[in-house]
Structures are given as C-alpha cells and as structure tokens.
Amino acid sequence: MAHVKLHIPGPVEVSEKTFQAFRSPMVGHRGQGFKDLYAKIQPQLQQLLYTRQLVYLSTSSAWGVMEGAVRNLVQKKVLNCMCGAFSDKWLDVSKKCGKSAEALQVEWGSPIRAEAIDRKLATGEFDALTLIHNETSTGTMSPLSEIAALKKKYPEVMFIVDAVSSLTALPVKFDELGIDVLLAGTQKAFALPPGLTVFTASPAALAKAATAKDRGYYFDFVEFQKNAEQSMTPSTPSISHIYALSSKLDDFFAEGLENRFARHAKTNQLTRDWAAKHGFNLFPEKGYESVTLTCVSNGARPGGRTVDVAKLQKLVKDQGFLIDGGYGKIKGTTFRLSNMGDETEATMNHLYAALDRAMAQL
Ligand SMILES: *Cc1c(COP(=O)(O)O)cnc(C)c1O
Q1: pLDDT at 357
Q2: Which of 20, 65, 85, 192 would be a feasible disulfide site paired with 186, CB 3.0-4.6 Å?
Q3: Domain 5-12+256-360, CATH number (from 3.90.1150.10, 2.60.40.10, 3.40.50.800, 3.40.50.300)
Q4: Distances from the Cα of 292 to the Cαs of 165, 183, 326, in angstroms?
Q5: Which residues contact 355 (CB under 8 A, 6 or more apart)?
Q6: Which atom of ligand 1 lies at the shortest distance from residue 197's CA?
Q7: Domain 16-253 CATH class label
Q8: Distances in whole angstroms, Cα of residue 91 to Cα of each of 96, 97, 130, 156
C-alpha cells in the first residue's frame, strides 16, 4: 500500500536517514559503545535545551515523564494549568498519582496567562505547577517567558513544562527561563518514531525529588541523574531511538538552530496564509498561535468558512497526505495541519496543492 504522508501533529513523518540510523547494530547498554553514543549526544542535547544540566533519555512516550514529574516533585499540591486536551489531562494524571491537585482552567484556544498563575500561587497552597508550552490539541502557545518569570517570586514552586510539540522549532532556554523540568516526546517536533522522551531537571528539582518517598522506580529522577553522570540510563533504553536521535541532532546542527527556527516560522506562516486564502479563521486567540501546527476553525469560531472536514480529509488522503480532523471536543469544528519536523517550503507546497484540489471538489 502506498504510504500516506503524515501532516497530523504527531507522530510526524520520519526520514529515511533517521530510519537508517534507527536500525544500527545493537550494543550493550552498560558497555562503552552505548556510553560513547550518549556522551556524543549529551552536549548536543544541552545545546538544544540551552542548559548546563544533564539531559536524560526516557524510553517512554511523554506521558511517562509527565506522570513521573508529578510523582517526583509534588508533595503539597499541584496547580495544573489547563487550556486543551493534553493540559486538561495532566489534572487527571496528578489525581491518579494520589496528589492534591487544582485546575487553572481557561477556555480551549486561550493561552495560560502569567497573571492567572500569579493569583493562584499567591495563595501559598502550591509547591508545583504543570504547564504545556504548546497545547497541541488547540494549536495554542502560552507565553512561557512571562510565566517562567514568576519563578523568581515563587522559588519554592516547581515549574514543570511540557514542550512536546514545540522543542526544536523555537528556542526554549531552560537555564535562562529558570524552570525546573522541561520535557519533550520525540515523535513530534523532533521527527523521530514514537517511544522516546528527552528531559532535564534543575538542581532544585533533583534535590526535592531525593526527598520524595513515593517517586516510583521507572521514572525516578534521582536515578536518571546518577546514571546520566555515567552516560547511562536507569534501565535498558530503546538504543535504536538513541541512534536515531544522534542522527537527528547532527541534522539540527548541520542546518543550524536559528535556521531551523526560521524554517518553522516560515512554513507555519504559509499554512496560516493558506487558511486565510480559503476564508477560514484560526482557532487560537490572536497572538498565541502555535508555530508548529495550525488549528483551523471550521465553525468553532464565529464567521469564516466551514467545510465537511471528514470529506476534506478523505480528498487529501486520496492524494497521499494525512491531515487531522480536530481533537476531542473540537473534532470537526476545527482541523489541524502540521509543519513540524523536516517540512520545508517545498514539501509544504505539495500539501497546500493537495488541499487546494480537495477544496475545489467540496
Ligand atoms: C502528544 C502530546 C503529549 C502526549 O504524548 P504521548 O506521546 O502520547 O505520551 C503530551 N503533551 C503534548 C503537548 C503533546 O502534543
């Protein structure tokens, strides 16, 4: 069967070069071969996350580390900042971990604002917060620098940040932001196959984790740090993913991070232009649109064009491209187009051409 190219917001298309690296011969995870591999990518990861902390490799999707962060760092009460499907779910996850948790809920499509967090933290009830930088379900990006600036006012609060669908597409400077945990699953903006998450933690987060009695085994941050100091992981990692990550990091630095960021800004603008050309509005509040995917309003917002999304998807799929038909409660009243990963102006133009042909047939 012919391959349908992924333009959904994760997993995204994986290059042949990445798959080649993925299928490298196996090495023992306690041997020098693995240590050399991890030691080679460690400075690249640190450069990518703008940090001097060690960057850890978790063989899990992002949710493993998202749950792990709660188990390692919440002792009093966690503030879950919620503005879409993934961030909303973090509240359930916190509760399922037995933590005292409270929602800071805003409407889907709105960002989380620093002032709202400030009001909650001022109560003194919280010792941690969770925030999703780029809420993938709504295509909305929250103002991370403004939010991170609150850390100075609330140094005891652990700032746990998910950058799953933004990291590598724009700068997220861990040390400068002063946040405590930054994590990203690699099947989105990294363009790797699903199954690996990279993350880092501040010295304060590691110190706090060390005092948590019920932090579990598989996602024990203290163990990740201890092992990373020896260029190892706590348990047997997906070594194939780490070979693929190494190849991908070489790609990032060959392109240059600044060029990579500019490429995402450009291809994202082209997608917004495509939507505007066809009379659609965007779903996110103006000024807070994601740069890695475009969440197009299809009736979710007043005014603007509406189409039969299922039919649009099918007409595009028949031409070899998979687009997303909206997530959760905004399925059908929105649809999403991804420009994450390796996409260029040229490859995005193929998608727009297919979309144009589909629109003409609706
Ligand atoms: C996809 C996604 C997740 C969940 O990732 P899994 O790979 O399913 O664990 C979490 N946060 C954001 C922002 C995402 O886009």
Answers
A1: 98
A2: 192
A3: 3.90.1150.10
A4: 7, 17, 15
A5: 274, 312, 316, 323, 337
A6: 7
A7: alpha beta
A8: 9, 10, 9, 20
**Cα(253)–Cα(43) distance, integer angstroms:** 12
Q: Is 48 helix (H, G, I), strand (E, B) or coil?
A: helix
Burial class from Cβ neighbours inside 10 Å (0-12, 13-18, 19+) for residue 19 reads middle
Q: Is the dihedral of CA 282, 283, 286, 289 positive or negative?
A: negative
Question: How many angstroms separate the CA atoms of 99 and 3, rounded?
Answer: 44
pLDDT score for 190: 98
User: Which amino acid makes up residue 289?
Assistant: E
CA of 64 to the centre of ligand 1 (A): 10
Predicted TM-score (pTM) of the model is 0.98
The confidence score (pLDDT) of residue 2 equals: 86
DSSP bridge pairs for 201: 181
What stretch(es) of the chain map to CATH 3.90.1150.10? 5-12+256-360
The span from the CA of 197 to the CA of 184, in Å, is 6
- Tell me which H or E stretch contains 293: strand 293-297
- The whole-number pLDDT of residue 101 equals 98
CA distances, 29 to each of 33, 169, 227 (Å): 8, 30, 11
Q: Which residues does the chain have with pLDDT short of 50?
A: none
Strand partners, 198: 57, 184
SS3 sequence of 152-216: HCCCCCEEEEECCCCECCECCCHHHHCCCEEEEECCCCCCCCCCCEEEEECHHHHHHHHCCCCCC
Which residues lie below 8 Å from residue 286, measured CB to CB, with a gap of 6+? none
Q: Which two tokens stand for residue 88?
A: 């909303």
- List C-alpha distances in Å: 45 to 12, 75, 103: 20, 29, 32
pLDDT of residue 265: 98
Does 6 sit in the ligand 1 pocket, CB within 6 Å? no
- The preferred substitution site among 91, 137, 162, 167 for testing ligand 1, maximizing ligand atoms within 8 Å of CB, is 162
Atom from ligand 1 closest to the CA of residue 135: 13
- Regarding the beta carbon of 166 and ligand 1, being less than 6 Å apart is answered no
